[in-house]
From TrEMBL:
Function in brief: Ubiquitous transcription factor required for a diverse set of processes. It is a component of the CCR4 complex involved in the control of gene expression.
UniProt-recorded name of the protein: poly(A)-specific ribonuclease
Subcellular location: Cytoplasm; Nucleus
Enzyme class: hydrolase
Length: 317
């Protein structure tokens, strides 16, 4: 999809079912999702020099008390081709009653977010989470891309698990690895690129340096997710980055997120099934070390299918 062809699709209850089906179909071809979350500010701000533990305590304090407003998802592939961009407007947040930071609400309003319309016509985040988990169960391991994504991940994790965030940063990283798997943070990657100010630049300034044009308005999640996807690909291309070297690292914390999404490995003939961790056991054809991982690897045709999220892992037989 060329730049001029990209349309950010606004999602309300009226078109929720059809657009989720569209995302499901696109993930069959596009295995990367850039995402961005809009929320009503920070009740507790974190000093730049704060420790990792203090930073996470503030995240937990904020995420567990505030409600999401908007989520942007942009799907793309390893070649940077965009498969679609969606902006989910949630009805959870009530601007008249819920906790919020006034300046943040004003910023969102000034950038075009209609909080009253969200409340009346938006999507319940619980319904969205249920349908997204169904969709993810239909596909192989997805790579998630964010920009300065600690809070984006916090809100998305809470949404998908429907529970409070974990008590520690170690438990948080573990849970993100189990639920989402492969995660990249563009701001962390920028630390290792000459001329990008050690990752201290915001997404807007970074995009201008890399000459990536924005579609839509800043501080709207669909536009931010699309810009994140394009900046990610442009950075990898321009600086020749090895993507795998940055997998699991977030800007602001040192604890790595390890990909532990459960999958089923399916062999065409005979059909054997066993659960494994995608990050440790790679489904590869014979001749590339497969027989050394498990003696059942003896066919050229190997498919990796996802297990339903949150099911217990069975022992390998």
């Amino acid at each position: 999809m060329e730049h001029s062809e990209v349309q950010i699709r606004d999602i309300w209850m009226s078109n929720f079912r059809n657009e989720m089906a569209r995302i499901d179909s696109r993930l069959g071809t596009y295995n990367m999702i850039a995402f961005d979350m809009e929320f009503p500010g920070f009740l507790r701000n974190t000093p730049r020099e704060a420790s990792e533990e203090a930073r996470y305590r503030d995240l937990k304090f904020n995420v567990d008390r505030l409600k999401p407003i908007q989520l942007g998802l942009t799907v793309f592939n390893n070649e940077g081709r965009i498969g679609g961009s969606w902006q989910f407007n949630f009805n959870d947040f009530d601007v008249t009653n819920d906790l919020q930071v006034g300046a943040s609400i004003q910023l969102l309003r000034s950038n075009g977010i209609n909080l009253e319309k969200n409340r009346l016509e938006g999507v319940d985040s619980r319904l969205f989470a249920f349908r997204l988990k169904e969709i993810l169960a239909n596909h192989g391991v997805i790579k998630w891309v964010t920009f300065h994504g600690l809070y984006d991940l916090g809100y998305l994790l809470r949404m998908l698990t429907q529970t409070y965030t974990p008590d520690s940063v170690v438990e948080f990283a573990k849970k993100v690895g189990e639920v989402l798997g492969s995660v990249y943070d563009v701001k962390f990657m920028a630390k290792y690129c000459n001329g990008l100010m050690d990752g201290l630049l915001g997404l807007e300034k970074l995009s201008k340096i890399l000459m990536v044009e924005r579609v839509g308005a800043a501080h709207q999640s669909g536009s931010d997710s699309l810009l994140t996807a394009r900046v990610f690909f442009k950075m990898v291309k321009v600086y020749g980055l090895v993507r795998q070297a940055f997998e699991g690292f977030l800007f602001g914390i040192g604890t790595m997120i390890e990909n532990k999404v459960n999958v089923l490995v399916v062999f065409d003939s005979p059909s054997y099934y066993y659960p494994c961790f995608k990050s440790h056991n790679y489904a590869v054809p014979m001749g590339h070390g497969a027989s050394q991982v498990n003696p059942w690897y003896h066919h050229q045709s190997v498919r990796v299918l996802p297990r339903p999220l949150f099911l217990p892992v069975l022992p390998v037989i």
